[in-house]
Fold this protein.
Amino acid sequence: MSVLTLRLAGPLQSWGSSARFSRRTTDSAPTKSGVVGLLAAALGRPRDGDLSDLAALRFGVRIDQPGTRIRDFQTAHHDDTGKSMPVSERFYLADAVFVAGLEGDEDLLVHLLAAVRNPVFLPFLGRRSCPPSRNIDLGLHPGAELAATLAAHEWQASDWYCRRRRKDESVDLTVLLETGPGDDGAEGPGDAVRDQPISFDPRHRRYGLRGVVARTVTVPNPRADRRNERAALASHDPVGHLTPLDRNGA
């Protein structure tokens, strides 16, 4: 098994696992169906194409920067009649950053990595109005395990967000990890979420349930304030342990 990691960051993101008519919500972290849809688009697969190989990948996501939930109101009109449609509520995550990981067969992940770097259809962060702020590719990790890879990855938060935590040598981050058939259940059964993609066919979209457990991992803060350490080094006396007699060479 290997792991493909993606950096999902942009001005806006929206990862809805459910939608009701004119109210379109967003989850607090990327959904598996949303990320699988991003990868299927990068591969150029049609909406009614087979998703079984992508859906079989084990999915996890680390919340590096939770962002702020915002609400927008949108209007629309029918093309043919010009009649106004009901005003809809759309929810987004602003200034959020996530590290998503997918674990599975290395040959498939190599193919996905090439597609992400040269996509057929541009990737979006949940909706077409949400482009990523930079390349999403964080690389392939051959022979790696999903939980360990997400725990070991460097903190990906924005510079302005890191400056808020510059006094902290390390930060605690939440990881949402898909439970697998080989799990021993030590962390409990987890939560059941309906974002396991079965079909994106617009005539009959289908999603199944999957288990998710939450973990907390601690990662170093590469932008921690080191001024106190530099001050300690500057005040260090390399001959401080010597007596005055030793210093005079007697």
About this structure: The chain is about 20% helix and 35% strand. The first helix runs from residue 32 to 43. The mean pLDDT is 86.
